[in-house]
């Protein structure tokens, strides 16, 4: 483990190019997080590392800077391979790398994930890329069909390696490790450290430096409460908590896909602005769900742990676990989604009779015994959580050279909508999404559907 007292704290102390320092400044990075301070000097020195750090600790920027620092733009071939457990995480990682590469010339980052047609990926691979980010299964499929050459790979990253193993990607990961040059640098990041991670590390690298990052200070600002379900149905208990707490947004974790959908349906019936996220949804529906939740068009997201892994949600007021997670590491991961960046957060766990054993295991990590509280009864007049925004989906994206500024211009062209009426904008390869106030949605749709943007017509619809 590295000594945090002697680690650098400012990016300017590292051997980074002026272009990377410029991108960091433009992206708002000021001081390094603990994981960056401990791992970046080692990564930039070219050493292999195994980093154990919680989600939200800043690990993506750490390995992204390591990749970009050694990238040779003149070689238009894959030089870095980043493996992720889910498409959602892969998209976020790719976007983070693009952001940090903004001041560098012509860095191409390509995302390769399952759940979407391969034909567009095949076309992109034919045009070449410097960095490949994706899920192990889809990348191996392309490799087996000779669409990817790994001979120039200088950096291999396994992000959230523990979840990839949990999801059954062991064989695919082994095949990709074998396909990449032995001279590569290997970077493994994992929130937990089960025995399989130790075995995987030994397979990837014989001398990886182990860096363990303590939980961030933000985690200590999380208040945990445990409520006794008693005879209350889980969906009703969640409804009572939402009415009582009135959070700006909330994630509800369930242990099964069936329960996830059932609770989301019942909360919707109670009038809450709620969406479900689980493995039975098609990829496009998962993408739309996450866009709507992260831009504030839905205030409650009910999800399974696997589906929610790697989601980048910066501010979350409340986390509710319906029953104990399968293990204490997953419980810690759930509650760590609130109280980020120094903010205070509340994590609630609903306890039924079947949770007693796992509750006692968790209690062993506490300084004092866990006391179950009765469910709160919301005050009279409390209303369901409703979103003020709605998401519009446009039939164009990066492939059409569409930019957020173009969408803002289209929505404000007649001066009836202002920036106050427009929320977050996300432009993907094929689609673009913009959040607008519900009161302005009809007019926004008219503006987009009845006029051109950059000389081209796009169709828009409300999700």
UniProtKB/TrEMBL annotation:
Domain DEAD-box RNA helicase Q residues, every copy: 9-37
A Gene Ontology molecular function term of the record: hydrolase activity
Keyword check for Ribonucleoprotein: no
Record's keyword annotation contains ATP-binding: yes
Protein name listed in UniProt: ATP-dependent RNA helicase DbpA
Residue ranges constituting the Helicase C-terminal domain according to the UniProt record: 237-383
Domain Helicase ATP-binding: 40-211
Species the sequence originates in: Pseudidiomarina aestuarii
């Amino acid at each position: 483990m590295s000594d945090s007292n002697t680690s650098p704290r400012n990016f300017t102390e590292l051997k980074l190019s002026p272009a990377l320092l410029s991108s960091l400044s433009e992206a708002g990075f000021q001081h390094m997080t603990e994981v960056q301070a401990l791992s970046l000097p080692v990564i930039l020195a070219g050493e292999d590392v195994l980093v154990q750090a919680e989600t939200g600790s800043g690990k993506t920027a750490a390995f992204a800077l390591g990749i970009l620092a050694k990238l040779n733009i003149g070689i238009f071939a894959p030089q870095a391979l980043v493996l992720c457990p889910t498409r959602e995480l892969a998209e976020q990682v790719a976007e983070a790398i693009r952001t940090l590469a903004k001041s560098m010339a012509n860095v191409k980052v390509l995302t390769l994930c399952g759940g979407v047609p391969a034909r567009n990926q095949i076309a992109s691979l034919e045009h070449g890329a410097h960095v490949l980010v994706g899920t192990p299964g889809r990348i191996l499929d392309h490799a087996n069909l000779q669409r990817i050459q790994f001979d120039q790979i200088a950096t291999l990253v396994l992000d959230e390696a523990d979840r990839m193993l949990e999801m059954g990607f062991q064989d695919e990961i082994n095949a990709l490790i074998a396909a990449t040059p032995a001279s590569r640098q290997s970077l493994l990041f994992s929130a937990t450290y089960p025995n399989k991670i130790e075995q995987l590390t030994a397979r990837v690298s014989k001398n990886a430096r182990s860096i363990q990052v303590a939980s961030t200070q933000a985690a200590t600002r999380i208040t945990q409460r445990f409520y006794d379900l008693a005879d209350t149905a889980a969906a009703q208990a969640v409804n009572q908590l939402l009415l009582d707490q009135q959070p700006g947004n909330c994630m509800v974790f369930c242990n099964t896909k069936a329960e996830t959908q059932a609770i989301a349906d019942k909360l919707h019936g109670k009038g809450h602005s709620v969406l479900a996220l689980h493995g039975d949804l098609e990829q496009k529906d998962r993408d739309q769900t996450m866009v709507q939740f992260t831009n504030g068009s839905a205030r409650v997201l009910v999800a399974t742990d696997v589906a929610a892994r790697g989601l980048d949600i910066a501010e979350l007021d409340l986390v509710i676990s319906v029953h104990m997670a399968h293990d204490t590491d997953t419980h810690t991961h759930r509650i760590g989604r609130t109280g980020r960046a120094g903010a205070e957060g509340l994590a609630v766990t609903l306890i039924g009779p079947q949770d007693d054993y796992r509750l006692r295991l968790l209690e062993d990590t506490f300084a004092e015994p866990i006391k179950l509280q009765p469910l709160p009864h919301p005050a009279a007049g409390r209303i369901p959580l409703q979103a003020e925004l709605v998401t519009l989906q446009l039939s164009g994206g990066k492939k059409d050279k569409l930019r957020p500024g173009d969408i803002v211009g289209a929505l404000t062209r007649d001066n009836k909508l202002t920036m106050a009426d427009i929320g977050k904008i996300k432009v993907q390869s094929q689609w673009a999404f913009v959040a607008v106030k519900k009161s302005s949605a009809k007019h926004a749709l008219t503006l987009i559907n009845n006029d051109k943007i950059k000389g081209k017509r796009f169709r828009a619809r409300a999700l």
